[in-house]
Design brief:
Layout: E1 6-10, E2 31-32, E3 35-36, H1 37-47, E4 52-57, H2 62-67, H3 72-80, H4 84-91, E5 99-104, H5 111-117, H6 119-122, E6 127-130, E7 134-137, H7 142-153, E8 156-162, E9 172-175, E10 183-185, E11 188-191, E12 202-210, H8 213-220, H9 231-239, E13 244-248, E14 252-255, H10 259-272, H11 277-287
Parallel strand pairs: 1-4, 1-6, 4-5, 8-13
Antiparallel strand pairs: 2-3, 6-12, 7-14, 8-12, 9-11, 9-12, 10-13
Helix pairs in contact: 5-9, 8-9, 10-11
Protein name: UTP--glucose-1-phosphate uridylyltransferase
Family: Belongs to the UDPGP type 2 family.
Catalytic activity: alpha-D-glucose 1-phosphate + UTP + H(+) = UDP-alpha-D-glucose + diphosphate
């Protein structure tokens, strides 16, 4: 069985919920304290043993490529000023064994289409899909947990968590016939069902480990509203050919695609930050 060494990061979205902040800067570059969301996602992939990062990008996303590129002028300036600690942080953004590939998604045709754009690079290997909007705080990271489960089973795995029944219309929802095991086969999956029609309240979040069978399914799935190809529809088709498993990962998810979730993440991560944590706690205490 081939190991998971590649991760796909769909980063072509416009980030309209954070306008005007995202007018000229990618939403994936929004910082959680002092590190952008996309770097948290890449760090998670690296911890899972992944060495090839595949970014599916769009217009105005050059900042992501620049972030993971070498900054000769900045490094030279920091070295001249004796800023060794900061220089070490800068050079550690991307370890030397990691490679990055950038693919342009010319049209915003859905998450499934973004994943399909990565097919020429992924080839015939299993791969992870990580959505930077979903910041998952866990030890080990959620992707590492899921890669380990893939190596044990050889099946595609979707990261899931229980959400409020009223929130099902915001997620892909899976039916596991009520099974509460950490890892369990999926019976069906539906995209953003109304609460009254949802088969459960077990939601798929932004973590996937997929076999390459997903590509043929995505190529044959019928586009939905706005001509978009939904990854959920591709997964439903994949389930007709091979098992797909739901995994209740261990960790806390912050929905950083929403303003509230983004602010919660900043507060929680700031409280643990070695440089400002104690001072920030004192500040919060003073607000009571």
């Amino acid at each position: 069985m081939k190991r998971v060494t590649k991760a796909v990061f769909p980063v072509a979205g416009m980030g309209t919920r954070f306008l005007p902040a995202t007018k000229a800067s990618p939403k994936e570059m929004l910082p959680i304290v002092d590190k952008p969301l996309i770097q948290y996602a890449v760090d998670e992939a690296i911890a899972a043993g992944i060495t090839e990062m595949i970014f599916v990008t769009g217009r105005s996303k050059r900042a992501i490529e620049d972030h993971f590129d070498k900054a000769y002028e900045l490094e030279t300036e920091l070295e001249a000023r004796g800023k060794e600690a900061m220089l070490k942080v800068l050079r550690g953004i991307l370890p030397p064994q990691i490679t990055c590939v950038y693919i342009r998604q010319a049209e915003a045709l859905g998450l499934g289409h973004a994943v399909l754009c990565a097919k020429p690079v992924v080839g015939d290997e299993p791969f992870a899909v990580i959505l930077a909007d979903d910041l998952i705080d866990g030890a080990p990271y959620a992707t590492q947990q899921m890669v380990q489960r893939y190596e044990e089973t050889g099946h595609s795995i979707l990261g899931v968590e229980t959400v409020a029944p009223s929130e099902t219309a915001s997620y892909g929802i899976v039916d596991t016939n009520g099974a509460n095991d950490a890892l369990t086969p999926i019976k069906s999956i539906v995209e953003k069902p109304d609460p009254a029609e949802a088969p459960s309240n077990l939601a798929v979040v932004g973590r996937y480990v997929l076999t390459t069978g997903i590509f043929e399914c995505l190529e044959n799935v019928k586009p939905g509203k706005g001509g978009e190809i939904q990854l959920t529809d591709g997964i439903a088709a994949l389930m007709e050919k091979e098992p797909v498993l739901a995994y209740r990962y261990q960790g806390t998810r912050y929905d950083c695609g929403s303003k509230l979730g983004y602010m919660k993440a900043n507060v929680e991560f700031a409280l643990r930050h070695p440089e400002i944590g104690a001072s920030f706690q004192s500040y919060l205490d003073g607000l009571k």
